Amino acid sequence: MSPSSFDTAIHAIDKAHAHDPRKVQIEGKDEPYELYYSKKMSDYLEQCDPQARETLRLAIRAQHLRRWEVPRDSYPMNKTGYHLWRTYLKKRQAELATQICLDSGYSEEDAHRVGALIKKENLKQDAETQTLEDVACLVFLDDQFEEFEKGHDEAKIINILKKTWGKMSQRGHELALEISMSERARDLVSKALAG
């Protein structure tokens, strides 16, 4: 794996993210949401595992690859629909990322490893898959949680926080507790951890 393969793959992933029609304001400029999200994922990976292998770095960057093309409301708006949507997305995003890796010069083995990480295969048994899960949970808590919690009742939010916490490693827990949150968000996290 040469640095040029990595750079080529990252460029292709970021180019795909740049097509996301949803925008966020970052320092006064519009940025495609998935490009912003993927960079935040990469930033948290640096905190979790600064020595991460290229395959994990690529999986982290591609975790939501072209996700906006399959909106949540394209599946039933219930728990079953949510799980079907998430399962389909993991498979699709893994296939897209695997192909980008192959096109960028990675071996079949490495390209498929990126796909397996995106699908979160062997979570809890595979340290790299666990790191990806930690990073995804950290980005949720840091970037999405405060807005998300406004749309749900407290009991549901506490349950979601308990599930999120249960997916994370000890290192993920440590980093999560360092995230700056509003008083309300911090209170909900405290309630989830207490019960």
Number of separate strands = 2
Low-confidence stretches: none
As laid out across the biggest beta sheet, the strand order is: 1-2
User: Number of DSSP helices?
Assistant: 9
How does the overall form come out from the CA principal axes?
globular
| Alpha-beta classification | mainly alpha
Proportion of residues in β-strands: under 5%
Largest β-sheet summary: 2 strands, antiparallel
Please write the string of helix (H) and strand (E) elements.
Answer: HEEHHHHHHHH
Mean pLDDT: 93
Specify Rg, calculated over alpha carbons.
17 Å
Can you give the helix content as a percent range?
Answer: 55-70%
Straight-line distance between termini: 46 Å
Features of this protein?
two-stranded antiparallel ribbon, 195 residues, globular, 9 helices, mainly alpha
Characterise this structure.
With 195 residues, this protein is mainly alpha-helical. It is 68% helix and 4% strand. A hairpin with a 2-residue loop joins strand 1 and strand 2. Helix 1 runs parallel beside helix 3, helix 4 packs antiparallel against helix 5 and helix 6 runs parallel beside helix 8. The mean pLDDT is 93.
